[in-house]
Amino acid sequence: MKESILIGLLQNAALLIAFSMLYQNFWIKHEGPKNIFEKIIVGLVLSSIGIILMSTPWMMVPGISFDMRSVLLSVSGLFFGPIPTVIAMLATGFVRLSIGGVGLWMGLAVILFSGSIGLLWRKFRPNWKSNNYYMELLGLGLVVHISMSATTIFLPTDMILPALKVIAIPLIFIYSPVTMLLGILMVNQYKNWQNELARLKLQESERRFSQILESGNVLSLLLNNDGTINFCNDYLLEITGYERREVLGKNWFEGFVPFDERAKLKQLFSNGMINKKFSINFENRILTKEGEELYILWYNIALKSDTGEVLGTASIGVNVTDSKRHEKNLEEKNAEIEAQNEEYRKINQELLKAKEHAEESDRLKSAFLANMSHEIRTPMNSILGFSDLLKESKLTSEKQHRYIDVIEHSGKRMLNIINDIITISEIESGIVDIHNSEFNINEQIESIYASFKEEIAQNGINFSYLNTLPDSEAIIKSDGEKIYAVLVNLVKNAIKFTNHGAIEFGYNLKKDSEPAELEFFVKDTGEGIRQEQKELIFERFRQGSESLTRNYEGAGLGLAISKAFVEMLGGKIWVESDEENTASGKDGSATFYFTIPYDIKLNKKNSDE
Ligand code: ADP
Q1: Ligand 1, atom 7, residue with closest C-alpha
Q2: pLDDT at position 31, please?
Q3: For residues 430 and 150, what is the distance between their CA atoms, to the nearest angstrom?
Q4: Which of 309, 337, 480, 531 could form a disulfide with 439 if both were Cys (CB 3.0 to 4.6 A apart)?
């Protein structure tokens, strides 16, 4: 090879490298679409490189100078696109025109062909970079330079063959590979730049990610597959009060999870390792160094190797302790308010009851007053009326006796009412005392029987009593007067409400009760008591019939007094009645029961003596 050719080649090579630098520094580093102005500048620079290339040609055939403009323009078409390439084609075309000579038309055709082929390649093979670009570039080089060989037809006829002979081999074996090499150099520049960009982007995202990890109010934690701590950020240390060296390498579950949650969370963690999946949003408590509990809401993901093996977990957590406490406070407050509401509801109910009670009392008070005036006036009128009659001097002694009997009966009736009123007011003011003494209940029953026997017999009613215990075992220690009063009251009621049939009273020993007790009864075959009255009649001022036109005298106090007495003595009182008959208006029967504690030992002692 001649020295001038070598120098020309080297100069061309240097210029092509400069061309590639232009691509690297001005084209690919300024990412994004270029504006027309930038494209023109690049076109001008390309033109200058082309012109310099053309000014260092070498002669291969006498009269025809060669350079590497074909490489420059085809590669330019492929990499820079139409505007810069067309500018370079025009500039180099003018230069070639000004040189003239026999090779003018061939020189112009080379410029036109090589630039156009580069541009067409770019247009019709847009993905050439991602294909096997070595082959693409070699293909481009061959197409360009085979066409360049073809341009010899623009030479004078006698020069075509000699020229072809000289240039065909270098065009195919030097120009085409040079085109490929230049292209490869530029593709690599492009790829390097893309890699650099990717590296910068990665760096940026890593920086952002680590900023998140380190950021002030998010916890981050990496655990190995056995639960040991691989990484934690400053915030985790800050809120738990640990030093980093105390934490790294420790087992997370042993060190941070409260005992009551530990087994469960360990299990979840190992399940996650097996299933390669962790519950993404997960709330649990962690312990600080001081043992304080914090609530953390975790976002967990599995860290996997390239082969898909789970290496551990990455977790990001938010400290939700304050809102959790807030929530708890609210719950507590709610519960308090609910409890208060419940109390208010109860108070309301009580107030309602009290109101109803007050209204009822008011009604009863009025009924009582009306009843009382009736109850007092009736005997009073009798007393006054019959006293007047007694004043008559001509009265037979029989009539006198009858009048005196009426006055006596009315007096007793009044006395009874007054006594009842006094007793009930004493009970209500709590001044009724119990006077316990030992006495024989059989005697008391017999005495009551004796006092009423005649009166009841006169009414044609059968009257009997039942003492179930022998006298030796009939001793009780209680308030005899009160038991007497209760029994008398019940017997009097039985007389009052019974027109025919029988009245029986007495007691039975209930040994099975705890303690043992005597169960007294007063049974009659009177009108009976309706179901709904069974409780009411024991309330003060209440009567089975509360109308003033009822047939029976009485202020409705007797059973209330009896109930108070029985309860004072440690027993209870109730009534049973033949309901069917009572309800259908026929005579039924009523049995009043009350109990009094019975001391078995007392009687054993007595019988032993
Ligand atoms: P009073 O007899 O003065 O009305 P009590 O308190 O002794 O008051 O009795 C209350 C009510 O109980 C009576 O008005 C009556 O309706 C009912 N009563 C009480 N004893 C009997 C009985 N042996 N048979 C039917 N009803 C009775």
Answers
A1: 558
A2: 64
A3: 140
A4: 480
Amino acid, single-letter form, for residue 100: G
Beta bridge partners of 17: none
The pLDDT tens digits of the residues spanning 74-130 come to 999 999 999 999 999 999 999 999 988 888 999 999 999 999 999 999 999 998 988
Ligand 1 center–CA 28 separation, angstroms? 117
Could you tell me if 317 and 297 are in contact, meaning their C-beta atoms sit under 8 angstroms apart?
A: yes
**What is the pTM (predicted TM-score) of this model?**
0.46
What architecture is domain 2-196?
Answer: Orthogonal Bundle (1.10)
Distance 475 CA to ligand 1 centre (A): 30
How many residues would you count in the chain? 609
Q: What is the CATH number of domain 218-319?
A: 3.30.450.20
Distance CA 84, CA 92 (A): 12
Identify the CATH homologous superfamily for domain 433-608.
Histidine kinase-like ATPase, C-terminal domain (3.30.565.10)
Asked whether the beta carbons of 457 and 588 are under 8 A apart, the reply is no
Structural domain 343-424, CATH architecture: Orthogonal Bundle (1.10)
Rounded to whole angstroms, the maximal C-alpha distance in the chain is: 196
Strand partners, 24: none
Per-residue pLDDT of 202-259, as tens digits, reads 888 778 777 776 666 889 899 999 999 998 988 999 999 999 999 999 999 999 999 9
The amino acid that residue 13 corresponds to is A
Q: Return the domain boundaries, the chain.
A: 2-196, 218-319, 343-424, 433-608
Which ligand 1 atom sits nearest the alpha carbon of residue 522? 23
**Residue 374: φ, ψ to 5°:** -65, -45
Could you tell me the sign of the dihedral formed by the alpha carbons of 421, 425, 431, 435, in that order? positive
For the chain, which residues score pLDDT lower than 70?
1-5, 31, 60-61, 63, 213-216, 541-554, 579-587, 605-609
Q: Taking CB atoms and a 6 Å cutoff, what residues make up the pocket around ligand 1?
A: 493-494, 497, 524, 526-529, 537, 543-545, 554-560, 590
Q: Exposed (0-12), middle (13-18) or buried (19+): which is 346, by Cβ within 10 Å? A: exposed
Pairing assessment for the beta strands 502-510 and 58-61 based on DSSP bridges: unpaired
Its sign, for the CA torsion 328, 329, 332, 337, is negative
